[in-house]
Specification:
Elements lengths: L5 H6 L14 H19 L3 H26 L13 E2 L5 H5 L4 E2 L2 H19 L8 H17 L8 E2 L3 E2 H34 L1
Antiparallel strand pairs: 1-2, 3-4
């Protein structure tokens, strides 16, 4: 609701909780998770950046698994395609009702594959990044880039500004914020390291 009908959202912000009327998009889930993580970290007095880093590999892996459900349901589907890997969805599925008998880009599988690749990258780097928060921000950057790419093939997307989808707009914002915050945290980490060296 917050992305699909902004006017209604501003009039009735609590409508975002009416999940029986649609919604449940991944960006809203991530945002909600961030709010809950912030409250949890403050309540238990733990480092939020460390906490988010610990959750990050499981988050992207969960997103990859979630796209399997989208695939069987036929939502988050792509445009018709002549590529040999195009899939014809069942007539009962969402994709099959909109494009009956036509092979479509299996965008759910595209995203699942990219999410698994991102998971592999983050898992390999999880112990090598020495700045708290960098692993989570790297996830934001990589997933945002993946969604920007996949949206070119998705048919059931909310579009803004012509051919740009809401997910692509959010993706660009995510990349800019991710890079900016990574540089900010790295700068603070470097300053803290120099101060510690001087004190020693």
């Amino acid at each position: 609701m917050a992305f699909s009908d902004v006017a209604v959202f501003w009039k009735k912000p609590l409508s975002v909780f009416a999940v029986w009327q649609g919604g449940l998009a991944i960006h809203g889930a991530i945002l909600g998770g961030l709010v809950v993580s912030f409250i949890f970290a403050r309540y238990h007095r733990i480092n939020l950046a460390k906490f988010l880093d610990a959750l990050t590999p499981s988050l992207i892996l969960g997103q990859a698994i979630g796209r399997i459900g989208c695939f069987f349901n036929g939502d988050a589907h792509g445009y018709p395609t002549t590529m040999p890997w195009g899939l014809v969805y069942s007539a009962e599925s969402i994709a099959g009702q909109i494009y009956p008998g036509l092979p479509l880009h299996p965008t759910q599988l595209y995203e699942m594959t990219l999410n698994l690749i991102i998971f592999g990258i983050l898992w390999k780097l999880r112990k090598k990044l020495n700045v708290n928060g960098h692993l989570f921000l790297l996830y934001v950057i990589l997933y945002s880039a993946a969604r920007i790419f996949i949206e070119h093939f998705r048919a059931d997307k909310l579009t803004y500004f012509g051919n740009y989808s809401a997910a692509q707009t959010i993706g660009v914002i995510g990349i800019v914020l991710g890079v900016t915050l990574m540089l900010y945290l790295k700068k603070n980490f470097s300053h803290a390291g120099r101060s510690k060296s001087i004190n020693v």
